[in-house]
Specification:
This protein is of the alpha/beta class. It has 15 helices and 11 strands. It folds into 2 domains: 343 residues, TIM Barrel (Alpha-Beta Barrel), CATH 3.20.20; 26 residues.
C-alpha cells in the first residue's frame, strides 16, 4: 500500500442549546488546525434537523475553510444528493473545485436523518432509490454530457454544465457506506471511491469491511470500470488520544455522554446507536468492542493496524469529529496523532530510528575521534605559539 492519508470526518456533533455561531467557528478553527498539522483531508456533513449536526451546506462551509487553509483537501461528507436537483449539485461542486484550485471532493449519500427527508416529503426508501438515479445524472453531467431525465423530484431538459471542473478530468467522487452493500455497489458501478462511515462506528460496519471492498471490485468489473484503487477507500473511526490513558478518560467526561445519547435517543439512525449507560461503560464499549481507541498513542497505532488487517488495506483513515473532550484537549489529540501515529503509516518512522541506531552503534568510536580532533588542534596551537609561526 502507498502512504496512508489521515483526515477528519466532521458531521459535526454539537450539544443542542449552545451558541451555533461559535460552534461553527470552532469547526472552521479545527480544520485550520488540521491543515497546519499536515492532515490530508476534511469531509464536512450535511444535515437539517435533530439539533446537533448543524452544518446545512457543506459547500458553503468548504468555501470558507478553503480561504483559511493551504493544502488540506476538502470534501462533502456527504452531500445528501437525494434532497437536491442533481444539476445544481454538479454545478455547485464544479464552482467549488475552481474556488479551491482543485482541493475539493464530492462525497454522496442518501441522507442519514429521516427527520431531514420527512420535511421534503421523502422517506428513507425514496432517498436510497434517488441516490442511484441522481448519482448517474451527476456523473454524466461531469463528463460533459447533456442530460434529459425525469426523476421522482425533478425534471431535467437538455441539462448541461457551462463550466468544466478545474481538476482534470474531474474532482474525486466517493460514495458513503455504513453496513449494507448499497454504497460499495454504487462505488463500483460509477468508478467512485468508498467512504466507509460505519468502518469502526458499528460492529456490523467493522465486520463488513473486507466484504464491502469485494463488492466494489465485483460491481466495477460488471460495469466495465477500471480496477478500483484502494487508495480511494476511506475508513471513518473513533479516537481520543492523550499523554496517558487516565488523562484520555478524564478528557472525554466533557462530552462523550451527550454523543452516545444523541444516537440512542435523538437521531433516528439506529445503525449508529452504541451501548453504554454511564461514562465508564461508554469508554469501555469503545475500547473493548474494538470500534475505537480512547487512550494513548499506542492504542491509536494498534487500532489503525487492526483496521488494516481487517480490510486488507485502505487509503485514508478519517477521525470522526466529535466533542467528547473540550476544544483544547481535542486539538491536543489531533496533534499527538499527527506527531506520533502518522510516521508509522507514512514510511517516516524507520528512517530516523535507523539513523539513531547507526549513530548509537558507532558512538564510541566517533566520540573518541572528536576528542582526538580537539587534542590535535590544541597541540597544533601550542606548537604555533612556541615557534611564533
Amino acid at each position: 500500500m502507498s502512504r496512508l492519508r489521515f483526515g477528519t470526518f466532521l458531521a459535526p456533533f454539537h450539544a443542542p442549546g449552545q451558541n451555533p455561531t461559535l460552534a461553527i467557528q470552532r469547526d472552521l478553527d479545527l480544520v485550520s488546525h488540521l491543515d497546519a498539522l499536515g492532515y490530508d483531508e476534511a469531509w464536512i456533513g450535511e444535515h437539517h434537523s435533530a439539533g446537533s449536526e448543524i452544518i446545512a451546506s457543506p459547500e458553503i462551509f468548504i468555501a470558507a475553510a478553503a480561504e483559511r487553509t493551504r493544502t488540506i483537501r476538502l470534501g462533502t461528507g456527504v452531500t445528501s444528493i437525494s434532497y437536491h436537483n442533481p444539476l445544481w449539485v454538479a454545478d455547485r461542486m464544479v464552482m467549488l473545485d475552481h474556488l479551491t484550485r482543485g482541493r475539493t471532493m464530492l462525497g454522496v449519500g442518501p441522507g442519514s436523518l429521516p427527520t431531514d427527508s420527512a420535511m421534503i416529503g421523502l422517506n428513507p426508501t425514496d432517498t436510497r432509490e434517488l441516490l442511484e438515479v441522481n448519482l448517474d445524472i451527476i456523473t454524466r453531467l461531469l463528463r460533459g454530457e447533456t442530460v434529459t431525465r425525469q426523476t421522482k423530484t425533478h425534471n431535467l431538459i437538455d441539462a448541461q454544465l457551462q463550466l468544466r471542473p478545474y481538476t482534470d478530468p474531474c474532482f474525486e467522487l466517493a460514495v458513503a457506506a455504513v453496513a449494507s452493500p448499497t454504497g460499495p455497489r454504487m462505488a463500483g458501478r460509477f468508478g467512485a471511491g468508498l467512504l466507509s462511515i460505519g468502518a469502526t462506528l458499528t460492529q456490523d460496519g467493522f465486520d463488513a469491511l473486507a466484504h464491502h471492498w469485494s463488492v466494489v471490485e465485483e460491481r466495477a468489473a460488471h460495469f466495465g470500470q477500471p480496477t478500483p484503487d484502494r487508495a480511494g477507500w476511506r475508513l471513518v473511526g473513533l479516537m481520543h488520544i492523550a499523554d496517558t490513558k487516565e488523562q484520555a478518560y478524564r478528557d472525554v467526561e466533557y462530552g462523550i455522554e451527550q454523543w452516545f445519547n444523541y444516537f440512542k435517543k435523538v437521531a433516528a439512525f439506529p445503525q449508529m446507536a452504541v451501548d453504554g449507560s454511564n461514562i465508564r461503560e461508554m469508554i469501555d464499549f469503545i475500547n473493548d468492542a474494538g470500534i475505537g481507541a480512547i487512550g494513548t498513542v499506542s492504542d491509536a497505532k494498534a487500532q489503525v493496524r487492526k483496521l488494516t488487517e481487517q480490510s486488507g488495506g485502505f487509503g485514508a483513515f478519517l477521525l470522526l469529529g466529535h466533542e467528547w473532550a473540550n476544544p483544547e484537549a481535542t486539538k491536543k489529540s489531533f496533534e499527538l496523532i499527527a506527531q506520533h501515529v502518522f510516521p508509522e503509516f507514512q514510511d517516516q518512522a524507520e528512517g530516523t530510528r535507523a539513523a539513531a541506531a547507526r549513530a548509537t552503534d558507532t558512538r564510541e568510536a566517533h566520540a573518541q575521534s572528536q576528542l582526538d580532533a580537539v587534542d590535535h588542534m590544541t597541540k597544533k596551537y601550542e606548537q604555533e605559539k612556541s615557534t611564533g609561526s
